[in-house]
Specification:
heterotrimer, A alpha/beta, B mainly alpha, C mainly alpha, B: mainly alpha, MetI-like fold, globular, disordered N terminus, C: MetI-like fold, two-stranded antiparallel ribbon, 10 helices
Chain lengths: ~270, ~270, ~300
C-alpha cells in the first residue's frame, strides 16, 4: 500500500524444506517450497490434509523454523519480523482469552507492547467498528457466536496495523452461511487496510472468492503443485454477486483440476491418511 | 484430615522445552534433590552448628530405626489396621451414598451440603467425643474418624463418575430397550469405576493420617501417633522421627496399593 | 443455535437467560437443612431404640451406648451452650467462650493460610519456569503430605524460641501458624502448577506470535487461566490450615485456642457430656467460615472463571 519504487515483497520463501522427527521415522512436511507474496496481495494456500499448508504458514509466522532454506518477511528474517511484530495472525479457533471482554481481547497486542491507554482505547474503538461489532465491546467470549468470535480475532490481528495477515483456516469451524458472510467481510477489511494476506483453507470456493492467486499444494512430500491466478478482477471490487457468476465457477474448476492434477487419476481414492 | 476432593498431580507438559528436557534428567532429578538434602542435613547436624536435640542427624534417626524396628512394626500394625478399617468402611458407605444420591435429586440435595461441610471441617476434633461414646479403650472412634475422612473423596469422585456416562451411550442402550439395571451395569458402573478408584487413592493417605492424628486426642496408646507424642514429650527426638518415618512408610504403602488398583481399573477400559 | 442469516445481516446469538439463581439457592439451603434435621432425627432415634449398652462384637464395640453420658440429647447440647462454662464466679457463657477460642484459632489459621498460599504460589512459579525443578520437587511435595505434622510441633516450637531478631520474639502461636501453613501450601502448589500448565497450545502460540517473554506470558495468560484451578485449591488450603491449627494447638499445648478446649472439655465429659460437644461445634463453624471466605473470594473473580465456548 505504501510501497515506494523498490517494493519489498511481503513474503519471500526460498527453497524451504521442513522435516519432522516422528516416532516412526522422518516426516517430510515441506520440500522445495518457493513462494513470493507481493504487498497487498491476497494469496490462498489450499490442498488436502498433510500437504503442509499450515506448516508453511507457521514457518512464515516464525512459530517453527525451516530445516533448510529461508523465509523472509518484508526483507528481514521471519524471526525478526515476529520480534518487530510485522504481522497479525488468526487461527482456526478464535483463541480469545475468556476472562477478557471483546475490547480487552482486541487490546491485548497493544497492551503487551506498551501502547498508552489512550491510544489503545482509540484503536480498539476503530477496530470494533471495522469488524462490525459495535455495542459488543463489553461482552465476553462465551456470550458470542463462533462468527463473532472470529471477527474479534481478526480485529485483534489487525490491532497493530500490520501489513501482513496470516490466517490458518479461520472460518473452518463456522457454518456455511456465516462463512460466506465472513468472507465478504474479510475482503472489505483487507481492502480497507491494504494488508497482504496469506490464507490457508480447505475450501475451493473460499480460496477462489478471496484471492488474487491460489497456491495449490500436494502432500507426501508437501510441495507446491500449481499456482492459479484468479481472473476475477481485483479483490477490492468483489462482492457477493460474484458467487453466482460464471467466471467464478470456471476458476473453481481450474483450481479443482490443479488439485487433482498432482495425484494419480483414480476415482476410488478411499480415505486420506495423514 | 479434611477430604481432598479431586486434586491429582498435574498432567500435560507445556510446549517449548527448556534445558534438561532429557527424560533421564527428569527421572533422576528428584532422587538427586533428595540425596543432596539429606547430605546437607547430615552435614549441618553433624557440624555442631545446631544442637543435636533440635535437628537430629539422619544417621541418628537411622540408628533409632534399626533399634526400634519391631516396635515400629507393631505400632504401625495398630494404626494401619485402624486406617484400613476406616478406609474400607468409608469407601463402602461413600459408594452406596453416591449411588443413592444419583437416583433422586432430593436425596442428593440433602447429602451434598453435608458432604461439602465434612470436606472442610476438622474431622479429628470429633475424636474425643467419639472415644467417650465408644469407650476409652476402643479403637472404634479412630476408625470412625478414618472412615469419615475416607468417605468424602470416595463419595465426591464416585458421584462425579456416575455423572460421566456419555449421552450417546445412554441413547444407544435406550434404543435397545435396556432396563435401568442393565444400563447401570453395562455403562454407568463401568464409567464410574475409574473415578471411584481415584477417590480411593485420595482417601488412602487421608485415612492413614487421620487414624494417626486421632491418636493424639485420647484413647488407647500403642499406635504410631501415641509413640510419636510420647517420644517427643520425653525429648527423644531421633526416636520420634524414627516413628515418623514409620508413619510415612505406612502412608506410602497405602497410597501405592491404591494407585496400583486405580491403574488396574483404568487400564481395562 | 445461530438463526438463519439474510445476506446482509450477521448471524447473532440470543443472550442466555439463566434460571432464577435465588430460587435454586433457596432450594439448596432448604435441602441442606433437611439433611441436618435427618441427621439429628437419626441420632435421637438411635438413642430411643438402640441397645442400651451398644453393640459389642467380640471385643470390638461397633455401636455406641445410648446413655445420656455417652450420647447427650441434641437439645441438651444446644441448651448447654447458653449456660456458663464453669460454676465459678463470673464464668463466661459456653458459646461465648467457644467463640473467643475459635476466633483465636481462626486468626492463627488465616496467618498460616497466607504463608502457605504464598509459598505454594512461589513453588508453582518456579516449577512452571523450570521443568527440571518440577521433576525434582513435585514428588517430594506430594510425599510431604504423608508426614504427620505432629512430629514437627515440638521442633518448630524450639526452633522458634531461638529466633531473636531485634525486638522480634517468637510467639507460641507462630509455631501453630507455621504448622498450619505446612498443610496449606501443598494444594496450592499442586493446583497452581496445574493451572499454569492449563492454557492450550493455541493461546500459547498466540502469545508467542506477540514475541513476549516468560513473565508476560505468565501475567497475561497463565495466571488468569489458573484462577479456576486456584480457587478450589485455596479452599482446600483454608480447610487444611484450620485442621493444622487445631492439631498443632493440641500438640504444642497453646492456650486459648479451640484445640485446647476440645481436649479440656473432653476430659470433663464424664461429668458434663454436653459441654464436650461445644468446641466441636466451634471447630465445625471454623472450617465452614474458612471455606466460605474463600468461596466469597471466588465470587469476586467471576470473570476469570469463564470459558471460551459459547455453547
Amino acid at each position: 500500500m505504501t510501497e515506494s519504487v523498490i517494493t519489498t515483497d511481503a513474503v519471500t520463501v526460498t527453497a524451504v524444506d521442513k522435516v519432522f522427527e516422528a516416532a516412526a521415522g522422518q516426516v517430510v512436511a515441506l520440500s522445495g517450497i518457493d513462494l513470493t507474496v507481493e504487498p497487498g496481495e491476497f494469496v490462498s494456500l489450499i490442498g488436502p490434509s498433510g500437504c503442509g499448508k499450515s506448516t508453511l504458514l507457521r514457518l512464515i509466522a516464525d512459530l517453527d523454523t525451516p530445516s533448510s532454506g529461508s523465509v523472509e518477511v518484508f526483507g528481514t528474517s521471519a524471526h525478526q519480523a515476529r520480534v518487530d511484530q510485522k504481522y497479525g495472525i488468526a487461527f482456526q479457533q478464535a483463541g480469545l482469552l475468556p476472562w477478557r471482554s471483546v475490547a480487552a481481547n482486541i487490546a491485548l497486542p497493544l497492551e503487551l507492547h506498551g501502547s498508552s491507554s489512550v491510544e489503545t482505547r482509540e484503536r480498539v474503538a476503530e477496530l470494533i467498528a471495522l469488524v462490525g461489532l459495535d455495542d459488543f465491546g463489553d461482552r465476553y467470549p462465551d456470550e458470542l457466536s463462533g462468527g463473532m468470535q472470529q471477527r474479534v480475532a481478526i480485529a485483534r490481528a489487525l490491532a497493530k496495523k500490520p501489513e501482513l495477515l496470516l490466517m490458518d483456516e479461520p472460518f473452518g469451524a463456522l457454518d456455511e452461511m456465516t462463512r460466506e458472510y465472513m468472507q465478504t467481510e474479510l475482503l472489505r477489511i483487507s481492502a480497507e487496510t491494504g494488508a497482504a494476506v496469506v490464507f490457508v483453507t480447505h475450501s475451493i470456493p473460499e480460496a477462489v472468492y478471496l484471492s488474487d492467486r491460489v497456491v495449490v499444494m500436494s502432500p507426501r512430500p508437501g510441495r507446491i503443485a500449481a499456482v492459479v491466478p484468479m481472473a476475477l478482477g481485483s479483490t477490492a471490487s468483489r462482492a457477493d454477486d460474484l458467487r453466482e457468476d460464471g467466471a467464478f465457477f470456471e476458476m473453481i474448476t481450474a483450481v479443482r483440476e490443479a488439485l487433482h492434477g498432482g495425484a494419480p487419476a483414480s476415482s476410488a481414492r478411499g480415505v486420506e491418511n495423514r | 484430615m479434611t477430604g481432598a476432593a479431586t486434586i491429582a498431580p498435574p498432567r500435560g507438559r507445556p510446549p517449548g522445552a527448556a534445558w534438561g528436557s532429557g527424560g533421564t534428567a527428569r527421572a533422576v532429578a528428584p532422587i538427586v534433590l533428595g540425596v543432596s538434602v539429606v547430605a546437607v542435613w547430615q552435614l549441618i547436624a553433624g557440624s555442631g552448628l545446631v544442637e543435636a536435640y533440635l535437628l537430629p542427624s539422619p544417621a541418628a534417626i537411622g540408628a533409632e530405626i534399626v533399634e526400634f524396628w519391631p516396635s515400629m512394626v507393631s505400632a504401625g500394625a495398630i494404626t494401619g489396621l485402624n486406617a484400613l478399617v476406616g478406609l474400607v468402611a468409608g469407601t463402602l458407605i461413600g459408594i452406596i451414598a453416591a449411588l443413592v444420591a444419583s437416583t433422586r435429586r432430593s436425596l442428593d440435595g440433602m447429602l451434598a451440603p453435608i458432604v461439602a461441610a465434612l470436606a472442610v471441617i476438622p474431622i479429628v476434633a470429633l475424636a474425643p467425643v467419639l472415644n467417650t461414646m465408644f469407650g476409652a479403650d476402643s479403637q472404634t472412634g479412630r476408625q470412625l474418624i478414618a472412615a469419615l475422612a475416607a468417605f468424602v473423596p470416595v463419595f465426591l469422585n464416585t458421584a462425579r463418575g456416575l455423572r460421566q456416562t456419555q449421552p450417546v451411550h445412554r441413547d444407544l442402550l435406550r434404543s435397545y430397550a435396556a432396563s435401568n439395571a442393565q444400563i447401570m451395569r453395562t455403562i454407568t458402573l463401568r464409567t464410574a469405576a475409574p473415578f471411584t478408584f481415584t477417590g480411593i487413592r485420595l482417601a488412602s493417605s487421608l485415612a492413614v493420617i487421620s487414624a494417626l492424628v486421632a491418636e493424639y486426642f485420647g484413647g488407647p496408646r500403642g499406635g504410631l501417633g501415641g509413640l510419636i507424642s510420647t517420644s517427643a514429650a520425653s525429648s527423644a527426638y531421633p526416636r520420634a522421627w524414627a516413628y515418623v518415618v514409620a508413619a510415612i512408610i505406612l502412608g506410602l504403602a497405602f497410597s501405592l496399593v491404591a494407585s496400583g488398583l486405580e491403574r488396574l481399573v483404568s487400564r481395562r477400559r | 443455535m445461530t438463526q438463519a442469516a439474510t445476506v446482509a445481516r450477521a448471524p447473532s446469538r440470543r443472550p442466555r437467560t439463566a434460571p432464577p439463581a435465588s430460587r435454586a439457592r433457596a432450594r439448596a439451603w432448604g435441602f441442606g437443612a433437611l439433611g441436618l434435621a435427618a441427621l439429628a432425627a437419626f441420632w435421637e432415634l438411635y438413642k430411643l431404640l438402640g441397645p442400651a449398652d451398644g453393640l459389642v462384637i467380640g471385643e470390638v464395640r461397633v455401636l455406641p451406648r445410648t446413655s445420656d453420658l455417652a450420647m447427650p440429647h441434641i437439645w441438651e447440647t444446644a441448651g448447654r451452650l447458653f449456660e456458663p462454662v464453669t460454676r465459678a464466679e463470673g464464668a463466661r457463657v459456653l458459646w461465648l467462650e467457644v467463640a473467643i477460642a475459635a476466633s483465636l484459632t481462626l486468626g492463627i489459621a488465616a496467618a498460616g493460610w497466607i504463608v502457605g498460599v504464598t509459598v505454594g504460589l512461589l513453588l508453582a512459579l518456579v516449577m512452571q519456569r523450570w521443568r527440571l525443578a518440577e521433576s525434582a520437587a513435585l514428588p517430594w511435595i506430594i510425599l510431604s503430605q504423608t508426614v504427620p505434622l505432629i512430629a514437627f510441633a515440638p521442633v518448630v516450637k524450639s526452633w522458634g524460641s531461638r529466633i531473636e531478631i531485634g525486638a522480634f520474639e517468637w510467639q507460641d502461636w507462630m509455631s501453630v501458624a507455621v504448622i498450619a501453613s505446612y498443610l496449606a501450601f501443598f494444594p496450592v502448589a499442586v493446583g497452581a502448577l496445574k493451572g499454569f500448565q492449563s492454557p492450550d497450545r493455541l493461546h500459547l502460540e498466540l502469545l508467542r506470535s506477540y514475541s513476549v517473554g516468560w513473565w508476560q506470558t505468565m501475567r497475561y495468560l497463565r495466571l488468569p487461566a489458573a484462577v479456576p484451578y486456584l480457587l478450589p485449591a485455596l479452599r482446600l488450603a483454608a480447610a487444611n490450615a484450620v485442621v493444622g491449627a487445631v492439631v498443632a494447638e493440641v500438640s504444642t499445648g497453646l492456650q486459648g485456642g479451640i484445640g485446647r478446649l476440645v481436649i479440656q472439655y473432653a476430659g470433663q465429659a464424664s461429668g458434663d457430656p454436653a459441654k464436650a460437644w461445644a468446641p466441636i461445634l466451634g471447630a465445625i463453624a471454623l472450617g465452614l467460615i474458612a471455606a466460605g471466605s474463600v468461596a466469597l473470594m471466588g465470587a469476586l473473580a467471576r470473570n476469570y472463571r469463564r470459558t471460551e465456548d459459547a455453547s
